[in-house]
Amino acid sequence: MVEQRMNSVIKWTLILFVLVSIILNIVLISMYSGRAPKCSAHRAHPLRGKHDERSLVFADLTREEYSQVQQYMLKQKDLDISTNQITKPSENFLFLIDLSLPKKADALAYLDDGKGKPTREATAVVFYGKSGYVKEYVVGPLPNPKYHRDVTKERYNTDIPINSRPVTIGEYAVLFEFLEAEFFSKLQKLMKESFDVDDTKHLNAFEQMPRGVRSGDRSTWISFMRDMSGMYIHPVGLEVLVNHESVNSSQWTIQRVLYNGQYFDSVQALKEKYDRGSVKKILYTKSRDYGSLKPKTKPLQVGPQLFHPEGKRYSISDNHVLYMDWSFAFGLSSLTGMRVFDVRFKDERILYELSVQEAMSVYGSVTPGMGLTKFLDTEHRDWSLCAPTGPRCGLPL
Ligand SMILES: *[C@@H]1O[C@H](CO)[C@@H](O)[C@H](O)[C@H]1NC(C)=O
Asked: What start-end ranges are recorded for coiled-coil regions in this protein (predicted)?
């Protein structure tokens, strides 16, 4: 009897304890939760501006538009163009398609005076390996192109020779075949002893720019690195200067070789001196993969986080961005990088276009390849102000 009563007292005490604990938790959580910052899904404050779909006059080409232009250019049989990535330098290659920006006056008339929308057009760049020049076309109207117009002279005031083109994937493919046939396969003993390179292992190549000092030059120093993470910090002390001026790769030549700080005028000269033992040799030693960015120890804690305590203060619709009192349209050109248009503050336009035009990085080193390197980048860009006299920009409006 007594035991039974004791059991039921314990049971009821426990139930009471659990109930009180739950109620206390609910009360405390609701009291304190208001104090901690939270990631709100909703905006605490309404947006201060409205999205404007007229910003689409500055929008990058859509996938469909891009493909329409490509199809249109391929249909022009007289141009005899290929879009195959590994098109040889001696053939005609459709290198680039990009938005052709509307004239500023036309865009402003549309944005401010309710005039008609400017015709949407694309720029197409073709490398004519067969004829030895580069041409730029305007193709329009999008999305269903019916015309193309050669604008090379109009835009650049000169013809553009084929050697002004950047190296394409097709040319790289031929370059690597050339190096295999004319360089690596002729130096097998040296490659194995100095760099442990054989049929299964290879070196990574890194090419240098500029490819000469005069217009038309196209000779490139190619440096070799160990095939490891962050290959740039694993140079092996081997560089080769390839003349690839001709679009006909049978006319390409190796002009200089640098091995362990010593120069040679040909692969043959290096090979003979190496075999004779009159060259200061590199003997291969293994090295750790110290360039890897993979964490070498377990992280100790979660890193800093970014969150919006009162919801997002910005909004994006197509290419139009609102941010507090600001608004702008944005794009990313493969020729000139990131850019914004029609930048407004409290709905007042303060910039028509803000974009990067050019950036240069200069390298230094003890080897000719790295020492000569100056990247005049049009693709890997920083932000900078566009010059007021530039053809497509103006500051301020
Ligand atoms: C390429 O160059 C080689 C060697 O000079 C020549 O025999 C060949 O005819 C050239 N090919 C073309 C398509 O011009």
From this structure: none
